[in-house]
# Entry
Amino acid sequence: MSSANLTREETAARSAVITVHSIRVELDLRDAPDAAQSGFGTTTTLDFDASTSETWLDFVGEEVHRVTVNGSDHPVDYDGSRIQITGLAGSNVVIVEAIGAYSRSGEGLHRFVDPVDGETYLYTQYEPADSRRVMACFEQPDMKAAYSFVVHAPASWQVLSNQSVSAASEHDGVRTVEFAPTLPLSSYITAVAAGPYHRVDAEWTCGDQTVSLGVLCRPSLAEFLEADEIIEVTKQGLDFFTDAFAFAYPWGKYDQIFVPEYNLGAMENPGLVTFTEAYLSRGAATDAQRGARANTILHEMAHMWFGDLVTMRWWDDLWLKESFADYMGAHASAAATRYTDAWERFAANRKAWAYQQDQLPTTHPIVADITDLEAAKLNFDGITYAKGAAVLKQLVAFVGEEHFFEGARRYFAAHAYGNTTLEDLLVQLEDVSGRDVRAWSRAWLETSGMSTLSIEGDKGERMLVQSDPRPHRLRVGLYDLVDGRLARRDLVELDIVEERTPVTFGDADLVLINDDDLTYAKARLDARSLTAVEQALSTLEPLPRALVWSSLWNATRDGELPAERYLRIVGAHAASEANIGLLSGVVANAAYAIGHYLPHDVRAAHRTAWLETTWNALSEADAGSDAQLSWARAFAAASAYDDVYATQARATLDGDAPEKLRVDPDLRWALLTALRTTGHASGEDISAELGRDDTASGRTASIRALWSEPLAESRIVAWHAAWEDHTLSNDHLSATIDGVRAGGRRDLIASLDTGYFERILGAWQTRSIELARRLVLGLFPASESLDDVDAWLAANEGAPGALRRLVIEQRDNLARDLRVRAAQSQLAGGVG
# Structure
């Protein structure tokens, strides 16, 4: 195993003998605008106690110049990821002078040059273990310290960190900024950003507390920032969480910065939260997109308490921050902002991620067994986030909302600025609620998989049946179909534990299991209910409608509902879907079903039919509406697979668009890339569009469009570039991969399948884990056989566990595709 891949056992042993007090980090970024400079100076001073004579510091960079231990020079013993330190006393001061490397992968200190203004922008991203790319540190969450940052940067730049500036000076065009020490933090949530960012300031006040707020982005995106909206949600969230947690916001200021080429949605660095620029729509955005952004703002804000104030001891308990933040993002959105449909979007879309992840052979309990950092990196998944949040919703139903929040308050009071495990939270919840929370934990947090719930019997006494039994508190809605509309007549609340539970319901056209979405389970519709929703799905209220959409999709993915019937339901009701958050999920699922679950002999016809559906819905939607924009995006995506509406796509690009359609740069690129994919756009068209939009997003989109040309020679060149061109940034790598896969043209790239399996192990060993992950997932061959992947798995049993996990998951996805496709003819014969 590489020494960069820290294990749980060795980090636990290190924290048992080392107590960190403070860490001072000095960064020399003055030459960052010079592209010839690949690295930056970094000097770290660590003050700690030790009950051992030796340990190691974590650092991944270009070189280590000098190490001093308690005032004396120490031999530099550095293997590329660890600096060995000997001769320790009881109290120690260790200084490491080194050169870090600027990143183009979004890991560590990422450097980006904006093509619009030619300026350089820097930001850090560390989770779970990339702070060592910027400073020498103890790279584990249970070794908290007070951090002080000093940054030397060009005088015209904004320089930010977790805390406010305590001192600043300028000399010879260089600005030196010193930040106040932080309260105790884990290394992975420290942060620095620097560059000529655009900034909007505000304040939030609560009683005697005043917190300065900042919202930042690159100046070239300032017109799209929507700072007033972001600040409003931020203030609403701070009001809500301060009251809910009875613990004042502890981190001083609250800056939020939108940064380029970001690998995540956002990151909860206290006092300096980072977000992807994808949340800044370039001219056209639906209210559902703004709702998603609000949810993320509140998710990260919840981390100020769950994760930053109280931090898990090791990555096994990652759920202690991510599951809670995911739950709180939706809860606070619905309770404190105008985005009251957050739980509907969670039910239909967010939980779909959990259901998919939980059916993979690599699924794991929410409280996972994370043995090392590579495993931790891949554990930021649908189980830890969405399933964890769904299970917490079940916990709130189990103990009661007031008890849940009171338990959280006691948890923060008891463990502020410390580290915890599962037991520390359970003891508070059990004490305040009086419920057997440990039994609940064993059933929900410490097991994997999910129940599938269904009703057996037609009338009178029936059975509610669950596979993989667990305790559920849930509700069953009974709906009547009257004058073409479905209306709820009754709501039955149940506690179920066993595999089969007798239930007595009156006659109903639709029996909706898990109405109100209290539990985490796949709920099946019986035959009569399926017929009812086929007729009147769009007449349901938003939350039951979301639950039905979810049920239909799960049944389709599992090969129990014919994909063609699912598509008929989508065709009948999607155009009437008023909730744009639900609509976006439905149209994505429809496209996926066509490409993955339909047999090849009917796929082309369905692609044409779906393209026609998207164009008709676009044409009939209210002018200027969110629905119109959503259908335009669906039309552009569908146009990459069929060219029967190429004339309409070209006309939209040329200015003859449906009335009031907001054709922003991103939609233009989507349409142009679709035309390129079907052979209706040239390299000259791409160059002309780049002339209109020579921005960072435009350049990335132009790479995607360029490589989408429907020629085998072009796709093969792009495929090789993805593997071999190490100058590609994270975003440019993904755009290249997208070009290789554009339009699902397996006929152009099938010859490359063998090369994929020859390269993935080498890529994993030589590229950063983020870039290697993109290659392994993005270029996995969607073949008609499992033979190649099975052969690789058999021949590479000793490959890194994280790599094998990715390949096993991709194998399972392919196996599902093949299995569901093969079952379609039989399903069609058995279902009307």
User: Anything to note?
Assistant: The chain has 27 helices and 28 strands. The CA atoms of residues 64 and 98 lie 4 Å apart. Residues 801-830 form the longest helix (30 residues).
